[in-house]
Design a protein that fits this description.
The protein is an all-alpha fold. The protein is built from four helices and no strands. Belongs to the UPF0382 family.
């Protein structure tokens, strides 16, 4: 993925996260119970944080030519889809089994951050 594509992906993720946050605050608060609304808000929070991380990775890609940045971006994007996506689905459907795949998204987030740390360590030289 090229830097410009990653920045666009970041912007689209942030757009979706803001829309999901507003939807949760204004529409779902009358539909979901407090526990499921908290699940929804967690999904929004992690999507926003990692959407911003994708933006930072896109900017770094313009300075550092390192394949680890692309791998980090793919891991974080996968984390958004799996972690936040499964929590959105859980909140909307109440199907608790969906929560079982959420940790896989968390692992993808951890991998993304670890790859970024490794990339930064390699840039020191």
């Amino acid at each position: 993925m090229k830097a410009a594509s990653l920045i666009a992906t970041s912007a689209l993720n942030m757009l979706v996260a803001v829309a999901a946050g507003a939807f949760g605050a204004h529409t779902l608060k009358t539909v979901l119970d407090a526990d499921m609304l908290t699940v929804w808000q967690t999904a929004v929070h992690y999507q926003m944080v990692h959407g911003l991380a994708l933006l930072a990775l896109g900017i770094l890609m313009q300075q550092w030519n390192d394949a680890l940045l692309r791998k980090s971006a793919y891991a974080m994007l996968s984390g958004i889809v799996v972690f936040s996506g499964s929590l959105y689905a859980l909140a909307l459907t109440g199907v608790r089994l969906l929560g079982a795949i959420t940790p896989l998204g968390g692992l993808a987030f951890l991998l993304g951050w670890a790859l970024l740390a490794w990339c930064a360590y390699r840039q020191r030289r």
